[in-house]
Write a structure and sequence with these properties.
This protein has 397 residues and is an alpha/beta fold. It has a domain of 218 residues: FAD/NAD(P)-binding domain (3-Layer(bba) Sandwich), CATH 3.50.50.60. The chain is 36% helix and 26% strand. It is built from 13 helices and 18 strands. The strands form four sheets. It has a seven-stranded mixed β-sheet. Strands 7-2-1-11-18-17 form a six-stranded mixed β-sheet. Helix 1 packs parallel to helix 10, helix 4 runs parallel beside helix 13 and helix 10 packs antiparallel against helix 11. It starts with a strand and ends in a 14-residue tail after the last helix.
Length: 397
Amino acid sequence: MKVIIVGAGIGGTSAGIALARLGHEVVIYDQMRENKPVGAALSLWSNGVKVLNWLGLADEVAALGGDMADMVYRDGASGEILCDFSLAPVTAQSGQKPYPVARADLQAALMDRFGRERIHLNTKMVAIADDGARVTVTFADGSDDTADLLIGADGARSLTRAYVQPEGAPEVVREYCGYTNFNGLIPVDPAIGRPTAWTTYVADGKRAAVMPVAGDRFYFWFDVPQPAGLPYDRAEGKAPLLAAFAGWAPGVQALLEAIDPVTSLNRVDIWDITPFETWTKGRVAILGDAAHNTAPDIGQGACSALEDAFALGIAFATNTLSVEDTLKRYERVRVERAGDLVLRARRRGHETHAFDADATAAWYASLRGTDGAGIIRGIVGNIAGTPVDLGGRLPGD
């Protein structure tokens, strides 16, 4: 069977590897000109790492992942440690150590494993046609390709998503989450945070954080609640951060000083999409951000895309009635769980960014002196229910 995947991101390349390992002929198209992922790094919690292990990338992911042994919260103004605890219970309960990874490094590993010769960049899809037996994709340069099925991993502004929606259904639209994220990579600096800890400074609904990734680097990110669409020129560099975090703790000032905006500083307004139920139409299906554009507040965006790839691979390995039937079974496995993660992230973002000032104040108070048990329960709760565990329950559930 021939498969066309549109989108060479985390979800698309993972799905490509899964389907190719089943013996299918898979080709990937993407409009990007080169591997320049949006965002410097990502959180791979145990569910996402397990999918990559299943795809045969266990050694690569372990080498790319940072040694994130602990979690630390600090007061943004004073730098006072609010709590400091081990993440070992996450590993013990899930069966896999989580890893923060540089997104470009993981993307390169996935592209290499799939086979770069089968990835066609700088090729933008503009039309889809399904005659019931084959799917034809037309590209902006006038060329086309035909296959037995199409997987749209074409991101938050997905053309494939619009194609699969039922006639007359409300338009699926992206919704602004209320804050802007700045992120990048810097060398590890103990003045900012312990090299083996995820350290987050919190105050005033804003966050500044670092997580360790391979190569003695920190992935850093800042959240700034503000209206959508504020003008920003890259020539401004880190000026908005210097203004937003003026007077914050010495560790945050050290972080700001370490940022080189020329080499590593991204700025992105954060959006998500209210969950919807239709992911397939005939021989066409969606996955990743096309299906469940998620805010990063629980670190499950990439993991959810990896779960899609796993579920799709299992569906095609075990069902033989028809392409259409198999895609519907994939949809039924994923819609509820992926949608739940979108809503969990939305609720979490509402709490942490002072959109409800009392709720955020209560959250800050709960951090002070905690042993982390409640936070661990939340992290493990996001992992529980993953299709990778095939219905297995975690200890203590």
